[in-house]
Design brief:
30% of the residues lie in helices and 31% in strands. With 307 residues, it is α/β, with parallel strands linked by helices. The chain has a seven-stranded mixed sheet with strand order 10-9-8-11-12-14-13, with helices on both faces. The chain has a four-stranded antiparallel sheet with strand order 2-3-1-4. It has a three-stranded mixed sheet with strand order 5-6-7, covered by helices on one side. Strand 9, helix 7 and strand 10 form a beta-alpha-beta unit. Helix 5 packs parallel to helix 6.
Amino acid sequence: MKWIKVKIDYFSDELNQTKENLINILSEIGIKQIEVSDFFTDNSLDYNVNFKKESDVWSITGYIIDNRFANLKLNIIYEKLSEYSEAKEDFIYEIYTAKCSDEDWQDEWKKYFHTVNITENIVIKPSWDSYEAIDNEIVIEIDPGLAFGTGTHETTSLCAEFLEKYSVGRKKLLDIGCGSGILMLIGKKMGIEKVTGIDIDEKVEEVVLENFDKNDIKDNFQVIIGNLVEDINDKYDIVVSNILVDVLTELLESIEKTLEKDATVIFSGILAEKEEAFAEKAEKYNLQKLDRKEKNNWVSLVFKYVG
């Protein structure tokens, strides 16, 4: 498969906030894998350093499938960056694009993706890293893929935290928009008996099967290729969905068909400024808000089904 690499070099007086805003711009158009290069993180502090070197930059890199929608997504990125630059006078940037293959990207990504705790007790590791669990840690092995995430984005780590909290005693999990299957894997590792994932992308089944095999999980999981919950005929006592808020809003209209009485529902991928409207609509579909967490302007909400 062919991809377009999009690299944004930037500087701002508010580097951390700018970094999060740029990540959000890419995430909102569905870019799942994002590389971050931070000069102060990647180099020791040296007040005599020459900042004119080409490598002395802050950058965000993402990848877009090179198909008929690529130019549309690139134009959205250009427009968003232009708008942000007009609003923030201290923000300067340059954007670069280049075509690449899966193999090119995978070799490059090994420089960036290493073992990481996404919660206090859940660890994500790639196959090229060695890691031994400490105490009660749950270790999940998953390699990055251009189409699906690895679990390190804030929206996924928020879901993981809530799965740790609300999985106890649950027997059947549904992940709507399951992608790599990372949340399904966490559910199984947390002791949920059966996990099901549904996604519209046909590549998902192969990816999930590979990831479950890497983690030595052989049964009691299912992958369905379909749109949202149209092809779901079972009911679940815990449902999770980490997708864009506009899709989550659409999902509210049909999610009840998947819910057992008193089911727990975890939604993530909600920008803070859209949280209130989403929560108000959720209540109209018999969902009672139980919990909330936020990281870097991304919000995850937990509801109880009271229908």
